[in-house]
Amino acid sequence: QKEVEQNSGPLSVPEGAIASLNCTYSDRGSQSFFWYRQYSGKSPELIMSIYSNGDKEDGRFTAQLNKASQYVSLLIRDSQPSDSATYLCAVNIDNAGGTSYGKLTFGQGTILTVHP
Amino acid sequence: KAGVTQTPRYLIKTRGQQVTLSCSPISGHRSVSWYQQTPGQGLQFLFEYFSETQRNKGNFPGRFSGRQFSNSRSEMNVSTLELGDSALYLCASSFGSGRMEDTQYFGPGTRLTVL
User: Is the model more confident about B56 or about A9?
Assistant: First the structure.
């Protein structure tokens, strides 16, 4: 089992729709969860971070965290063609149960395409 | 506030050579993490430096090494290059507090091609 898994893509949604991206993680002790967006040929750009169970909203983006079920999701409302990119879920995992300094474990990414 | 910078942006080397990549963190950030990104393996953690000390290391061979200077700038070195080392090398900076809110911000990356 991979430490961080994302729903396989690619995901294609029409403009204006809600895009839903999911991620599960293996370490129950994980505390920090991040969503990055990566355009083709570019570096990852932070979209959202979440640390507590529940929802966190920022503009058109909502991150949801459920530690009991070990999943984190990202919803993009009113999707735009400019949202077309690869979305990376990242988790700070420390298998020793302590603090894993500077190490993020990434999922394989979900490619999102928003078509007009 | 200036972001993370990496130099060079592109590099072409041949097998057996060595390469040094540089990363300057966001002002005030003391932690620099390095990652390798390939189409097959995705983003993988190489190592992290804080206050000139390596605090964490991923599962890469000893050919991959790094260091950090007193101004928090970091370099990574790959010796005896192999074709499989062709990748996008990313560095990310953060405060390095170890607190869960500590967030990493990525530089533009260095695209290394090994021929």
Answer: B56
